[in-house]
Amino acid sequence: MIDAFFPFPPISLFDAAGLTGVALYVIAYSGVQIGQINGNGLLYTCLNGLAASGILISLFGSFNLASAMVNMMFLGFSLVGAGRILMATMTERRRRSQDERRAALAAPVEAATG
Questions:
Q1: How far is Cα 45 from Cα 30, in angstroms, rounded to an integer?
Q2: Which of 26, 28, 77, 88 is 20 to 30 A removed from 53 (C-alpha atoms)?
Q3: Could you tell me which residues come within 8 angstroms of residue 58 by beta carbon, excluding any fewer than 6 positions away?
Q4: What proportion of the chain, given as a percentage, has pLDDT over 90?
Q5: pLDDT on residue 113
Q6: How far apart are CA 51 and CA 92, in angstroms?
Q7: What is the DSSP letter of 39?
Q8: By 3-state DSSP, what share of the chain in percent is helix, strand and coil, each rounded to 5?
C-alpha cells in the first residue's frame, strides 16, 4: 500500500547531501548567468563551497575518485576565494575607519583656523 504512494526507494543521507550539493551548484551557476549573483562575490563562493562539501559527503556512500578530486579542488578554491574576499572587506573597512578618524581630527583644526 505504501509503495503506491512512494514508488522510489528511500534515499540515504549521503545521497541527500549529494543532491543538495548539486542543487547548490545549479543555483549558484544559474544565479550568475541571470545576473542575480555576483560571480566574484562571497555568496557565489560560499554556495560553491557548500555544494562541493555536499558532494564530498555523498562520496562516503559511493566513492568516485574523479568526483572527489574535482570537488576537493572546488572546495579549496572556494576557501581561498572566501578568505580573499573577507580580507579585502576587512582592509576596506579599516581604511574607511582611518579616513573617518583623520577627517574628524582635522575638522576642529580647520574650524579654529578658518
A1: 14
A2: 88
A3: 14, 15, 17, 18, 19, 21
A4: 77
A5: 65
A6: 29
A7: T
A8: 80, 0, 20
Helix axes 42-58, 13-33, angle to 10 degrees: 150
Q: What is the pTM of this model?
A: 0.82
Q: Which residues contact 107 (CB under 8 A, 6 or more apart)?
A: none
Other Cβ atoms within 10 Å of 55 Cβ, number: 25
Q: Which three cell numbers stand for residue 76?
A: 579549496
CA distance 35 to 38: 7
Q: Which three cell numbers stand for residue 8?
A: 522510489
Q: CA torsion angle for 50, 55, 59, 62 (degrees, to 10)?
A: 150
